[in-house]
Structure formats: C-alpha cells, structure tokens
C-alpha cells in the first residue's frame, strides 16, 4: 500500500485540530477539550506533551461494541492565562451529566 494513504488520516486529524484551535482562539474561548478512551495510552501521552491535562473521567462515554470510559483532556487558551479551566475534577462524571 502507498505510504501516503497510511499517513493521511493522522495528518488530516492534526490539521483539523490546528484549525479548531485557531478558530477557538479567534473566538476568545477559555479552553479546548477532547475526549480520549482510557485505553488509548499513546494518544493520552501525546496530548499531555501538547499541553493538555486530564481534566476529568467520563463514565460510559463510549458505548456500543466496546463500552469504555473516557478522559476529558483540556488545554487552556490565552483567555485563561491562570489556567483555572485546567484544574482537574476530583471525581468521575457520568456521561448523562454532560451538557
């Protein structure tokens, strides 16, 4: 298989994340967050290196063929210079409690 096609999804995902970050900065957002399966250790470590923290655990976030909790990983933007939006919660939250 052509290497270009194997690399396209991760490159596209990275470009999409960069675009979303820029839009949120322009809209003066406080933070950006993303949800990651607890089992996805590679992604969790990558996002930590990019400045995200584990803000909270979401119980039953993923359902279907493979039910699993998720981490809500959060990164403060320039509107939150004190990074108050990144202070982790001390308890899990159920997915039905999300806005």
From TrEMBL:
Q: Which domain of life is it from?
A: Eukaryota
One GO cellular component assignment for this chain's record is: NatB complex
Q: Where is this region: Disordered?
A: 75-99
Family (UniProt): Belongs to the acetyltransferase family. ARD1 subfamily.
One GO molecular function term of this record is:
protein-N-terminal amino-acid acetyltransferase activity
- Organism of derivation: Caenorhabditis japonica
User: What InterPro entries does the record point to?
Assistant: Acyl_CoA_acyltransferase, NatB_acetyltransferase_subunit
What protein am I looking at? N-acetyltransferase domain-containing protein
Swiss-Prot/TrEMBL keywords:
Acyltransferase, Transferase
Composition bias type Basic and acidic residues, residue spans = 75-85
* PANTHER family documented for this protein: N-ALPHA-ACETYLTRANSFERASE 20
